[in-house]
Amino acid sequence: MRVTTAFNRLLALPGTTVRDVSFEPAQITVTVALRRRRLACADCSHSSRARYDTRTVDSSWRHLDLGRLRLVVRAKLRRIDCPTHGVRTEGVPFARVESGFTRDFEDLVAWLATRMDKTAVRRLVRVAWQTVGAICARVVTDQLDPGRLEELFEVGIDEVSWRKGHRYLTLVTDHGTGKVVWGAQGKDTATCDQFFAELGADRAAKLAAVSTDMGAAYLKSVAKPGHAPNATVCIDPFPKQFKGARWVLLKRPERLTDTQAATLRKLRRHGGAAWRAYGLKEALRAVFAGDLTPSETTELLDRWCVKAARSRLEPFVKLTGTVRTHREGILAAIRLGINNARVEALNNKVRLITRRAYGFHSAQAALALVMLACGPITLRLPYEQTHVRPHSV
Ligand SMILES: [Zn+2]
Questions:
Q1: Is the pLDDT score of 272 beyond 80?
Q2: How is 230-288 classified by DSSP, letter by letter?
């Protein structure tokens, strides 16, 4: 078998024929020619037989490694004059626009990034972490389910930090599927407004419940005319200072490790503010357990407020005021069963992923990683793909 035939079969890159294979100490370079005569615009469906010119330098893409060797695919590309996009280098079926990697390579990297820590991914695929971020962004643009904003009935709006120094993303979760369906950089009213603008009036009218925390920014956006006209606003009463607080104020007793349980016993023996805070936090959680009637819930929440207000614990006294202000929203959250506990697993996953994204330099890349791991995307590894791919001509 000729080496070019062997590499045609090995690579199976759609729409190409292998012309030449050269071996270097750490790299194999495979030169391919596109089989199609027509040139395709990389950004739209326009195609033409007319070439504008041929690029003087070859384009190259890193492909999946072959054994210990890096594999680089090379091709001479032509340029097309697209009526919409102007003079552009033609698109190729085996790589995404503006990428120096093949689809197969990018799909592998995106899959790994959702499952492995930063160091492991970098070492395994030998690319910089920032490049991993750019790859994630391209895969998301390509694979994200365009219908993800259809049929939304109950959503949660939350913020998450993606980088030290108060860099935030706003994320919208579909409570029905437990997937993150929308995200953007920032955490103010305007950020949240962007979501409702993209959702549009018709789909917004279908929203039956919107849950958010007690921060004023999102509530202000949700309350704007047309944003969620038929939705019950559900408020998560656990404020940020408790979310980020010590494990003792966060974890459920049954989920503590042995060491943590021992520390908790010690805390109980000593009593004091930390122990009282723990008790109050557990009591509030019990109101949210979902096994009470609406009237019992109301009664217990009001009693909790009285107790917390007298606790002399500054954060709880403050929380009482906010709970009283948002009493209706909080009761709605309990009634509809939309609360922290329900989305706890997803929130933990989002936090784990955003910590991994801390090395990324753009919010877009951090958001992409969140969407890859928690969004409506099915990532497939190269050998799980069908042979029909987008752009194959
Ligand atoms: Zn075009």
A1: no
A2: TPEEEEE---HHHHTS-HHHHS-GGG--HHHHHHHHHHHHH-HHHHHHHHHHHHHHHHT
Centre of ligand 1 to C-alpha 149, Å, is: 26
* Closest to 391 (Cα-Cα) out of 6, 11, 9, 16: 16
* Beta carbons of 32 and 4 less than 8 angstroms apart: no
pLDDT tens-digit profile of 126-151?
Answer: 999 999 999 999 999 999 888 999 99
End-to-end C-alpha distance for the chain, whole angstroms: 27
Residues measured by CB to lie within 5 Å of ligand 1, the ion: 41, 43-44, 46, 82, 84-85
pLDDT value at residue 389: 47
CATH topology of domain 154-237: Nucleotidyltransferase; domain 5 (3.30.420)
DSSP 101: B
346: helix, coil or strand?
A: helix
Domain range summary for the chain, segments of one domain joined by +: 3-143, 154-237, 245-336, 347-382
**Sign of CA pseudo-dihedral 115, 117, 123, 128:** positive
Q: Is the dihedral of CA 195, 198, 199, 204 positive or negative?
A: positive
Distance 379 CA to ligand 1 centre (A): 27
